[in-house]
Amino acid sequence: MGVCRNLSFLLLFLSLLQFLHHSSSHPLCIDSSAPLPQKVPLSFCSYNGTSCCNSTDDSQIKNQFKAMNISDSSCASLLKSILCARCDQFSAELFRINSRPQQVPVLCNSTVLPNSTQTSQAANNYCSKLWTTCQNVSMVNSPFSASVQGQAGGGVMSNSTKLTDIWKSQSDFCNAFGRASDENSVCFAGEPVNLNSTGTSIPPSGLCLEKIGNGSYLNMVAHPDGSNRAFFSNQPGMIWLATIPKQGSGGVMQLDEANPFLDLTDEVTFDTAFGMMGIAVHPNFLTNGRFFASFNCDKTKWPACGGRCACNSDVNCDASQLPPDSGSFPCQYQSVVAEFTVNGTASQPSLAKTAQPSEVRRIFTMGLPFTAHHAGQILFGPTDGYLYFMMGDGGNSGDPYNFSQNKKSLLGKIMRLDVDNIPSAAEISQLSLWGNYSIPKDNPYTEDKELQPEIWALGFRNPWRCSFDSVRPSYFMCADVGQDTYEEVDLVMKNGNYGWHVYEGPNLFNPPKSPGGNTSAKSMNPIFPVMGYNHSAVNKNEGSASITGGYFYRAETDPCTYGMYLYADLYAGALWAGIESPENSGNFTSNLIPFTCAHDSPISCTFVPGSTLPALGYIYSFGEDNSKDVYILASSGVYRVVPPSRCKYTCSKENTTAEVTTGPAPSPPSGATKLTNPYVNLVSLLVSLWLLCLL
């Protein structure tokens, strides 16, 4: 039993370890919101243009600086720049040391590692300059005494006014506040952070696919035990647990259609626009067995379906005045998130092959005003453990009731919910919640009092497939389906407004009708897409298009695609690789890339007549397994990205002499930080040994 107990502790440690690697960040403010263009120039801090400060923040920093009462002008100039660093586009990264928030930014210590993403400004030993200039200068309420008291051999005198009162030497001071600039971090050198523009990646020569399954699915979620299993769900409401073959094995996906993991077809309303839209596994599934599904239902056919209508007096909407849509009345159809469990179906959740068919609890229920644009994907945040719920604008052309910009409406939003702390029925009623969840305390409503507390970001038309980068979890990417002209990919941040229906992509949009009113473009700070495409680029005759969001490619299988964001058009004729340059800048270029199916695909592919393009049908979604291999979920089957050489695509980084199943895997770009297959294999081995202890 002692061995089993040690295995349990080791598994817990390894599970936590995967989140401890340092991840670099795109431009992001201290409060996790997006830097925005300033309409009024800052008067104190020299951070005009796009900044993390507004005029109120600028005034507060000015008052803080005056209160420090620094008599030495040279030191005062340095301290002003340090206080104003809160306005830097990279302030979220600058004001953290080992993931802990700090009072002052991390100071450059003149060390620039070879893989640094920062310019030569990082070679400035700003920490040494600050110490030399300010070590004996008195300052009131020094931020250096409050930040890291007791570290680096210093004292804990919170009332000290000189650096030398707290720190014994420059070495101690800079050990606490200094840092080198490398691939994963930036440092402050007395001026706004700049990134290198060198080392731009080259788009892959093509993406090679193999077909491993014939079924049509909307969702794929890797099993949290680290194995080669994954959950697949289809739109009618069935969920299966499948086994995925190893890369290069020639095998096909093993899935028993007659024995689903969970069958919700009696509850789910299924047609072109409705169905099961999302599934998610709780981060602690291996211990608590919690499983979640997002779907649509018809309250005229299922009494348990009913919920409040999204068109209500709180959002200045009268459901009785809405026109019928496709023969249905307003809020006949509902958007639901429900919780299920595998507890009781097996001795341990990891051994479960089915879930209990009855709901444990209803997380969310909301009536939809029209029959389209309700999105429905659900994801757990990889670092915060909260449930993200994507919701469209509710339908009808042009969002006529302006739900997406209405901060009291949950339509056209991304919500962020806490499903671990369930309030009482009385609290749910008192807080006017839409189900069994609580509100994370750092949701943006605490700063923007007009926002409904569930909202994380707003201004979406129909977000269709979102994902977190497995290496850099602050990169939360969502594709948003356009209306007339433009399909977009957004880098989603706290309290970000992504423009709809004032903008469609980067362009102003004129709603054909707007009985619900409009929002002035001058009154908002929209965040424009980081990638996207015009409808005419994929269908010159009709201009018809609909984006399907994907993943940052982090597998070892195709090293020439590593780190690029893959996304596609629904109609399966176009696929893009988004390349960020400079790295960690949040600036992307989209590259239309060729793709085809390997001649030795385990399941033979069919092709578009007269073309090398595989006949995928519709690309509904993408998936990612525990090895970070990426999948395309199409109407014609399940396709996996495989080594480019199998389709005769050239990739200089690919090791074509090694067997995929037995030889060394090709390496990703130098310095890449990621979980590797050996890590996953180790976890899988330990899980297997641990399960033997339970028998």
Automatic annotation (TrEMBL):
This protein's record includes keyword Signal: yes
Pfam families named among the record's database cross-references: GSDH
Boundaries of every Glucose/Sorbosone dehydrogenase domain copy: 230-526
Stretch forming the signal peptide: 1-25
Membrane-spanning parts: none
Key words, A-Z: Signal
Alphabetical list of InterPro entries matching this protein: 6-blade_b-propeller_TolB-like, Glc/Sorbosone_DH, Quinoprot_gluc/sorb_DH_b-prop
The protein's name in its UniProt record: HIPL1 protein-like isoform X1
Organism: Coffea arabica
Name of the gene this protein is made from: LOC113738574
